[in-house]
Design a protein that fits this description.
Elements (H helix, E strand, L loop, with lengths): L2 H7 L10 H8 L1 E5 L4 E3 L7 E7 L2 E4 L9 E5 L4 E2 L10 E4 L3 E7 H6 L3 H28 L2 H15 L5 E2 L4 H8 L3 H13 L3 E5 L2 E4 L2 H9 L1
Helix pairs in contact: 5-8, 6-7
Length: 219
């Protein structure tokens, strides 16, 4: 093979895949929020993108009749605040003391990263849509015990240790699962009595029988 043939046959190197997380880490501004502090309000201009560094963030929508359905909980490493329109449909609040990376959309454009911004928005939108689909399926298809079991399994999957910190309070859990706080507390008591889940403290739990918990979550 001649040198000319080698250059002709050689494949160009593939470009590195886009990593929105890395981009936010490099140019995002870290901001601290105290427990229960608002990060952005419902109806405010959606001109920034956020990523949780530590803590847990809750998004919720306040209704005219006083109800407050919860959209999602975001944990370390997860991106939130991405909207298709120019306003936030939900408010975001810190469930615990949080550190959040914040990056304005203008900063993307000023750095010549319009394409990267579009990719980041698209990927985050797909994740939020999938999360919303799973949430709707949970509310429509599962009973109270199955909802609570699914929720605890989801939290454990995101934890780094078998002892899971539960930043989400009983009322938040009830609002997210479409249940009353009394029902949530009763389901948790039943799981503890059956030695399926252990709560050493009010805000920490450990799964003791994964097989049974997964069976309950599946229905």
């Amino acid at each position: 093979m001649t040198l000319t043939d080698w250059f002709h046959d050689a494949k160009p190197p593939r470009p590195a895949p886009f990593d929105g997380q890395d981009l936010l880490s490099r140019i995002g501004v870290p901001m601290a929020f105290a427990k229960d502090e608002e990060i952005y309000g419902q109806g405010e201009t959606a001109d920034r993108i956020y990523r949780v560094v530590s803590g847990v963030v809750r998004t919720s929508r306040f209704m005219a009749d006083g109800r407050r359905p919860i959209g999602a909980f975001y944990h370390a490493g997860e991106i939130f605040g991405v909207e298709q329109d120019d306003r936030h449909e939900m408010a975001a609040e810190a469930l615990s003391n949080c550190v959040v990376l914040v990056l304005s959309r203008e900063a993307f454009l000023a750095a010549g990263l319009e394409k990267e911004l579009q990719t980041l928005v698209w990927e985050a939108t797909l994740r939020d849509l999938e999360s919303a689909r799973e949430h709707l399926a949970l509310l429509v298809r599962k009973n109270a015990r199955e909802r609570v079991a699914s929720f605890l399994l989801g939290l454990e999957a995101k934890a780094d240790d078998d002892l899971v910190d539960l930043a989400v309070g009983r009322q938040d859990m009830a609002d997210y699962l479409g249940l009353t706080i009394e029902t949530v507390s009763r389901m948790i008591t039943q799981l503890q009595s059956a030695k399926i889940v252990e709560f050493p403290t009010y805000r920490q739990f450990r799964v003791r029988n994964r097989h049974l918990l997964e069976g309950m979550a599946a229905g």
